[in-house]
Every structure is written in C-alpha cells, then in structure tokens.
TrEMBL record:
Any Gene Ontology CC annotation: membrane
GO MF term list: ABC-type transporter activity; ATP binding; ATP hydrolysis activity
Membrane topology summary: Multi-pass membrane protein
The species this protein was found in: Effrenium voratum
Every ABC transporter domain range: 15-260
Name of this protein: ABC transporter domain-containing protein
Keywords assigned: ATP-binding, Membrane, Nucleotide-binding, Transmembrane, Transmembrane helix, Transport
Residue spans crossing the bilayer: 395-418, 446-464, 470-495, 507-532, 588-609
Superkingdom per UniProt: Eukaryota
Record lineage: Eukaryota, Sar, Alveolata, Dinophyceae, Suessiales
Record carries keyword Membrane: yes
C-alpha cells in the first residue's frame, strides 16, 4: 500500500474499510458470505483496480463503499471517508459512480446531457455561468470536444461511439466535483483501443488528486499497467492480494505460481484465470511455496504471507492517521437544487426533446388518427339516426372509443420500462425522487393528451353527428385516455419487464370491458361480481359518453329496445336511466378518482418496487 495517506490530499479523500463483511440469506437458517473480513485503504492520487473472478464480490464491495447496496444482505464492519463516517446525503456529493452499462438520454447531445446533469446535481447557489464552466472543463478533461454537439443516439439511431459514451458517463460523475470516483467495468464492451483510451484518461484524472477505484475483468496489458494499485478477491469475497500493481508478479511467485511470460499470457488474464479455481483446496501454504499445485487457497496464503503482514501494519498506521486528522466532510453540500428545480429541468430537457421526436409522438398520435379514420368510414353520420340498429351501433362505437384508450395505453409502457436503468441511476445519483420523475412524466403525457384528445374528438364528433356537448365528449375522452396512461404507468412500475407489463395491462383492461356495461347490463351481472363492476373505468367512461349522447336528446327518447316483453329506450336498456349511473357528474368524478388512484399506485410502485438489486 503506497501513496498518500492523508484524508485531504488533492481533490480526493482516502477511503478505508475495516473488517468489512456482507452476507445474504440463502435458506431459512443459512447465510452466504459475498465479501468476508476485508481491510483496505484507497488513496487519493492513485488509480486502483479491483479484480477477481465472477462472484468474487468486486461490485458488491464498491456498492457498499459508495452507499448503494440494496437488498436483504447484512453489512458488517466500518467504512470511513477521510477518517470519518459519511452519511448517505453526504455520500451522494462526495462520490461519483459510473455503472457498467451506459445510461444516457439518446435524444440529447453530449453537451446537453452534461448541462442537464449539472442543472440537476449542483446546488441552487451555483450560478449558471459556473455550471457552464464545469461542463466545459469535464469536456476538456474527458476529450469530448469532437463529439460535444453530437446526439448521443441509441440502439436504433446512430450517435456517438462506445468509447465516447463511456467517457460521457465518467464526465457525468465528475460534474459535481466528487472526491472519490467508482467505476464498474469501465472497459466492458470496448475494443482494446477504446479501453486503453478510457484507462489513460482515468490515469490523467488521478494526477489531479481524485481517488479512483475501478472494477476490471479483462483489461489489456497496457491498460493494466496504468493502474497504481491492485486489490484481488477470490470467490467468496476473501482477499487474495492488495498492493502495488508492480509487486503482484513477485507475490504470486511466493504462492508457487510464477507468471508464464513465455506463453504469451496477458498478466491480468492470467491472474484471473489462476485465482478463479481458488475455492479452498486443502493444500497448505508450505505446499504452495514448494509444489506449485494446480489450485490453491490463495486467501489462506495471503493471510499467512509477509505481504499481508506488511499490508496490515501499514493499514493500521494509515487508519490511525486518518482518524487523527479527519477530512472536513461537514463542509460538503448535502442537498441538490431541490425537487421543483429538478422537475423544471426534466421538463425543459427531456420533455421538450420528446415533443420533437417522431418516434415518441408517432404511437401517441398514430392510433388516434388511424382509428378515427376507420370509425368515420364505418359510422359516418350515425349519431343522429333514430332506428334501433343505428342507436345500437352508436352505443357500441362509444364503448369502442373507451376500449381504445385502455388497449392503446400499451404504447405508454415503454416510456417507463425502457428508461428504467436510467431512472435507477439518476435516482441513486440524487438527481430527483421517484415522485418528481413520475410527476414530470404525468405532465409530459397530460399536455400531449390534451392535443391528441382534441384531434380525435374533432375528427369524430361532428362527422359522426354525435349528440350532446362536444366539450363533455372531449373531456370524457381526455379523462379516459389519462386513466389508460396512468394505468399503463402503474403496471410498468411493478412489472419486472416489458413482456410482463404487456401481458398484465390488456388482461386487466379486458376485465374492465366485461364489466363496462355493454356486454352484460349491470342488473344482469352475477351478485358475486357486481362489486367489481364498480372498479371498471370503462363503466364510468362509457356511462359519461352515453349520457351525453342520449340523455335529453331525441335519439334517447326512442323506445326501440325490447326488454322482458316491453319496449324501452337505450338508457333504460343499459340501466343508465336511474341511480348514480344516470348522473354525468358522478361518472366524471369517479373517473377522476380512478385517475388519481392509478397515478398514486404508479408513483408508489416507482418508489418502493425495484427490479435491480445491487
């Protein structure tokens, strides 16, 4: 362990952990150690690699240090930043975290993405000019000048390269000027040239005093040589090696595993391959020194080695110094610009971009335009006709309009599911709360829904010669559309993936159709199911449209339906002529209540249901 030992050197701060263990329950009375009894210090001004085979706990260790660990596991031990404990609110500003997979907004340019994050992360006290300066600085640091004004892009639309995207993610972490930066597999998915570029930039950053820790799985030899320190874990989360990268080959010679340079091995690949079978062979340390067995318990050898003894001694001395001279963490900001500012930023950057995106607008306008044209070709002028067939067809098409809002809501499911990884990352970074994000999505869709409802209502109301008030028709269609949208959001929030959401949503909408009043009139619903009909949004949506079309209108006075030997009007036939369901205000009120209820459930789901456990 070499390098700075102080808590306040440069921009960084020393990160120490003492007797750190993380266990998870696997059966009723059994537990599994993911990491076990780890001690260590990561120093400012040094680039540290975390390595080990899959399942060795590299990312788990980093998540615990960054305060991002979730799930049912139990954390034991001490984690200190600059010799003192850091509360969660401080950690969000003290650390930057770069996840393995890129989570960027494809519709924004690189510059817009960075300014968006700066507006979200930095306190209100930071003026716009300072935010602009910070963005320009990280663009220079991460060599993003050439792609600064390039749209980031996505899988379906070409944008920046994979290496540039990785550097943008690093830049996002640096916007708030953190003291410690964690990176999970920063070279994953990159070719050797891009991977080398990313690691070279990280090496430049530590010269500014940052404390940088990165998990790496299979770096190139050049990239590996850029790291100052290495911490290796084996399966089960036990320490295999900790110290300078320059000393690792000599250490493994003492384990009986000399590096076979003549075989053309890459040192980092060889280290992982060699330790990946290290799950606790019975060979003791003496046998390891002498016989170079095929597999070995490297953790046991480390615990008995002189390297470990020296490391532990330096660790204790460093920890004592850090505690004697703790970093002034209380001076760090503990809050961002506030949720109202976050809401405005979401709307100004993301919503405004969506409103200019054809892929976003297409599904929201397309089905309304197509179905209005189809309806007009089938039902032109039908609303004013008084014969039984026309009245029946009018009732059916009004019901169909309501159903369209339910089934068409499937178009809104991707709005949440495809942004899930981005939402989790930005919430963990402290950019906004789940409620703020949900409110922004609600406003985004509500404003657009006003226009889509008007387009649809204008297209069908007069051409089909529907009766009653155009305003009531348009408001009813708007409310029903919004119920469908928030229902889709509620399903998307709790469903584990898009396939599940696309199965759950139409299933529920279909049950609403059964109890909406057209297929089976209310008085004919079996007693055991009657209560459920009151929960169907279709009942109130269709009821509102039917009352507007037929109540106090000439077409509604025609007794053209046969019922139990008598002749009744359409409202009498569907039980809409008396009781609560004959009150248009009641229908509108319950529909609004369901809108609020589904919206609340969606926000609740986003807040408490997580489909990614770290």
């Amino acid at each position: 362990m070499t390098g700075k030992t102080g808590g306040q050197g440069g921009k960084g701060v020393a990160v120490s952990f003492n007797k750190l263990t993380y266990t998870v329950p696997v059966k009723k009375k059994e537990k599994l150690d993911i990491i076990k009894d780890l001690n260590g210090v990561f120093h400012p001004g040094r680039l540290t690699a975390l390595m080990g085979p899959s399942g060795s706990g590299k990312t788990t260790l980093m998540d615990i240090l960054a305060g991002r660990k979730s799930g049912a596991g139990k954390i034991q031990g001490e984690v200190l930043y600059g010799g003192c404990s850091a509360p969660p609110a401080v950690l969000k500003h003290l650390t930057g975290y770069v996840e393995q997979f890129d989570t960027l907004i494809g519709e924004l340019t690189v510059d817009q993405m960075l300014m968006y994050t700066a507006e979200m992360k930095l306190p209100r006290s930071v003026p716009y000019a300072e935010k602009r300066k910070r963005v320009d600085n990280v663009i220079q640091q991460l060599r993003l000048n050439k792609c600064q004004n390039t749209v980031i892009g996505s899988v379906l639309s070409r944008g920046i390269s994979g290496g540039q995207a990785k550097r943008v993610n690093v830049a996002l972490a640096l916007i708030s000027q953190p003291l410690v930066v964690y990176l999970d597999e920063p070279t994953s998915g990159l070719d050797s040239k891009m991977a080398n570029e990313v690691c070279a930039i990280l090496k430049e950053l530590v010269k500014d005093g940052y404390t940088i820790i990165a998990t790496v799985h299979s770096p190139t030899s050049f990239a590996f040589s850029l790291f100052d320190d290495l911490m290796m874990l084996q399966a089960g989360g036990a320490m295999v090696y900790a110290g300078p990268v320059a000393d690792v080959k000599n250490y493994f010679v003492t384990c009986g595993f000399p590096f076979p340079e003549e075989q053309g091995y890459s040192l980092p690949d060889w280290l992982v391959d060699t330790t990946s079978g290290a799950t606790g062979a019975t060979t003791d340390a003496t046998e390891i020194e002498d016989g170079a067995p095929a597999t070995a318990d490297f953790a046991a050898h480390w615990a008995k080695s002189k390297h470990s003894e020296a490391y532990s001694k330096e660790f204790e001395e460093t920890l004592a110094k850090l505690k004697a001279d703790p970093a002034p963490l209380k001076e760090l900001p503990t809050s961002g610009p506030g949720q109202l500012k976050a809401l405005r930023t979401l709307l100004s950057y993301r919503t405004s971009t969506h409103y200019r995106d054809g892929e976003f607008l297409g599904p929201r306008f397309g089905d309304k335009i197509f179905m209005s044209l189809l309806s007009l070709s089938l039902y032109w002028g039908i609303g004013s006709k008084k014969d039984a067939q026309s009245i029946q067809s009018t009732a059916a098409v009004l019901f169909f309009f309501c159903a369209l809002c339910g089934y068409g809501a499937a178009a809104y499911v991707p709005s949440l599911t495809l942004e899930r990884a981005l939402f989790y990352r930005e919430r963990a970074d402290g950019l906004y709360t789940a409620v703020t994000y949900y409110v922004a999505k609600f406003i985004e869709e509500a404003v657009l829904c006003i226009f889509t409802s008007l387009v649809f209502s204008l297209a069908v109301f007069w051409a089909m010669e529907l009766q009653g008030s155009f305003i009531i028709f348009a408001v009813s269609y708007f409310l029903t559309s919004m119920v469908g949208i928030v229902l889709a959001y509620a399903v998307a929030a709790v469903a584990p993936n898009m396939d599940a959401a696309n199965a759950m949503l139409p299933t529920y909408v279909t049950t609403c159709l059964y109890f909406g009043g057209l297929f089976i009139v209310f008085e004919k619903i079996p007693v055991g199911w009657y209560w459920y009909s009151w929960t169907s949004f279709m009942r109130y949506s269709w009821g509102m449209l039917m009352l507007n079309q037929f109540q106090d209108q000439a077409t509604g006075q025609e007794a053209v339906f046969y019922n139990d030997g008598g002749v009744v009007t359409v409202l009498e036939f569907y039980n809409l002529n008396e009781g609560l369901m004959s009150d248009m205000g009641f229908c509108a009120g319950v529909l609004s209540g369901l809108l609020i209820l589904f919206g609340f459930l969606g926000a609740l789901g986003l807040t408490f249901v997580s489909h990614v456990k770290r």
